[in-house]
Amino acid sequence: MNTCINCGVELEDGITVCPLCGKSPGNKNSPENIQGDYPSDIITSNKKENRKHLWELGGIITFSSIAVCTIVDLLISRKLDWSLYSDVSVLALWLTLTLILFAKTRMFLFFSGLMIIVLLALLAFDLIDTGPDWFFPVGLPLAISSSFAVWLIVLLYKKARFKGFNIIAAALIILAGLTILTELILDNYFHGITDLRWSLIAAVSVLPVALILSFYHYRLKKGKQLDSFFHV
To answer: What is the percentage of the chain residues whose pLDDT exceeds 90?
Structure first.
């Protein structure tokens, strides 16, 4: 019995083409030797089809929900009122689903697209709202800073050699900085002055925990992975 080094399936002696993956059992980098549909190709094709069908189903549900909310709002209020908020929210969710289905493996594209979706949704809410403008002084800087914080945490996780408590510690420090920046933005918008209070308390409370986690990771466990620590 031979074993295909490409997919691991056991083969009878004398077989030159694996019936599962369609490649030479003894050559890992070999192209397909025979034209045809192999199980591995079918699985890949099915995944693509499933993503496409899920996206189409999500689109049908999205635009059906928008139509229903808009019609109900017109019948009840005789004008477009609350349905504008729900329509924007549902559309943003569908666009986010699109990113998850087709761009989740491309980190930069995924987070850039997600940030654009959030910014456009917030801008739409600001335009719909009849109160004071808040998108540019509050929504825009908060959305950008939050997106940058999340992107930085994910980047650190991907680049870190050991993914242990050091990632949690770094995330806590980044979030502490984000809370301070959030209070700065809100204070400037509501009061026109900067008076840091709750964000400093939150940051000071988080920093000792981050230092303890860092010490535990680098000195005691010497870079132990999170999955091995929690036995998962």
So the answer is: 47
The residue out of 78, 99, 131 marking a domain boundary is 131
Domain membership of residue 41 (yes or no) is no
**60 burial via Cβ count (<10 Å: 0-12, 13-18, 19+):** exposed
131, 153, 168 — which closes off a domain? 131
Shared domain check, 165 and 90: no
| Whole-angstrom distance, CA of residue 115 vs CA of residue 93 | 13
**Cα distance between residue 20 and residue 28, in whole Å:** 14
Give the three-class secondary structure for 10: strand
Question: Does 122 have pLDDT greater than 80?
Answer: yes
* Helices 140-159/107-128 angle, 10° precision: 160
**221 has pLDDT over 60:** no
